[in-house]
Amino acid sequence: MITFVLGTKAELIKTMPIMKELEKRNIDYYFIHTGQHSIIDLVKDFEIKEPDATLYTPPKLSSRFMVKTHKAIFWGLSGIPRILREIRSVEPEFVCYHGDTLSTAMASVASSQALNVNKKWKNVHLEAGLRSDDVWEPYPEEISRRIADRFSDILFAVSKGAVENLKKEKLKGRIIHVGNTIIDSALISLTMANRKLGKLKEKNFCLINIHRHENIKSKERLGKIVNIITSVDTQTYWPLHDNTKQQLVKFGLMKKIKKKKNIKISRVVPYLKFIRLLANCKYLITDGGSIQEESLALKKPCILLRMKTERDEGLKTGINFLTKLNVNYATKLIKEFESKKFKIPKFKNPYGDGRAAKKIVDFIEVKN
C-alpha cells in the first residue's frame, strides 16, 4: 500500500499526476488529508478519490493561520501524533509527501525512524532538493523542506541542481532525479480546464499572485509590491488570498489598488480556472514558489517579487526574473513585457518534461 499525507491545495495539485498514474495502473493508495486547506473542490475537479482520512476539519478561508506563526506551530506539533496513528493503522510500504508546507514537515517526522524504530515503510519526499539557502526566505518553507529531506529514505529530486544540493548535505536518503510533478500537473490541468471550461479568448492581460508571509507581514515590503503592481497599465487580474487582503487593509494599501481601474480583484479562483488564466496571460507577477515552474511549463514571463528563490535554475531560462523587490527593476520589466519587444527565448525546462509522475510510479512499482 502507498500512503499519501497531504495538507494543502498546492500539495494535492502536485501529487495529482502520481495518483492518476497509480489509478491508470490499478495500484491502490491510501490518502490522508491533514486539513491544512480545504481540498474537496479540487478533488472533484481532478476526478480523484476523496481522502480516506481527514485529521482536522479544513478551514473555510484560503489560509488556516492568517499569518499567525504561533498558531501554525501549535497546530503542526499537535498533528504529528495524529498522522503517526493513521500511518500505523495502514502499515504501508511507502509514505509519500510533497513540497515544503507545515503538513510536509509533519508527515516526514511522524513517519520517520525517529518515532518508529522498527518501521517497515519507506519515507518518500516527492519534491526533494530545492534550496534558497536562507531559512527566512521563504519562511517557513525553507525549514519545512529541509526537515522533509532530512527524514526521508527516498528523495525524488526535481532538478540537477536539487541533486547537487542533496549531495552537499550528505543526507541518508537515496537520491533519484525525476523532475517536478508540477510540470505534469500544469499540462494535465490545462487540458482538463479547456475541456471543462472551454478555451479562454482573452490574451493580453497580466496575472497577479501574492501571498508570501515574509512579504505580506511587512508593511515596507507590501508597500513596494503595491507600487510595482499599480505601475501595470494593461488589464490585470488578481485572485486575492484572504491573508493578503487582510494585510493590505491593515496597512492601508487597499485604497491605492482600488484606484487602478485596470486591476480586477476577485476571490481565489479554483485551480483549473487559474491555470487557464496563467496559460493565456501575457505575463505574471508573483511571489509564489511552484508557480515559477508553472510559468516555465506554459512559457510565460514571470516577475518574481522575492529576495531569494529556491528555484534559481529557472532564472537561467530568460523568462523568470528575480527582482529582490527593486521597484525600478520590476517596473522596467513590466514596461518591457507590455511592449512588443520581448520575445520568449528557447530554453530547456530544468524541472522536467511532464513525465515525473511516470518515473516515480515506475520506481515505486519495482520496489513494491
Tell me the layout of helices and strands.
Blueprint: E1 2-6, H1 9-24, E2 29-33, H2 40-46, E3 53-54, H3 69-90, E4 94-97, H4 102-110, E5 122-128, H5 141-150, E6 154-157, H6 160-169, E7 174-177, H7 181-197, E8 205-209, H8 213-216, H9 219-229, E9 235-240, H10 242-250, H11 254-258, E10 263-267, H12 271-280, E11 283-286, H13 290-297, E12 302-304, E13 320-322, H14 327-338, H15 356-367
Parallel strand pairs: 1-2, 1-4, 2-3, 4-5, 5-6, 6-7, 8-9, 8-11, 9-10, 11-12, 12-13
Radius of gyration: 20 Å
Categorize the overall geometry. Answer: globular
Looking at the chains present, what oligomeric state does this protein adopt? single chain
Structural class: alpha/beta
CATH homologous superfamily of the largest domain - what is it?
A: Glycogen Phosphorylase B
Number of DSSP E strands: 13
Low-pLDDT parts are none
| N- to C-terminal distance | 8 Å
Biggest sheet descriptor: 7 strands, parallel
Number of structurally distinct domains: 2
CATH C-level class of the largest domain is Alpha Beta
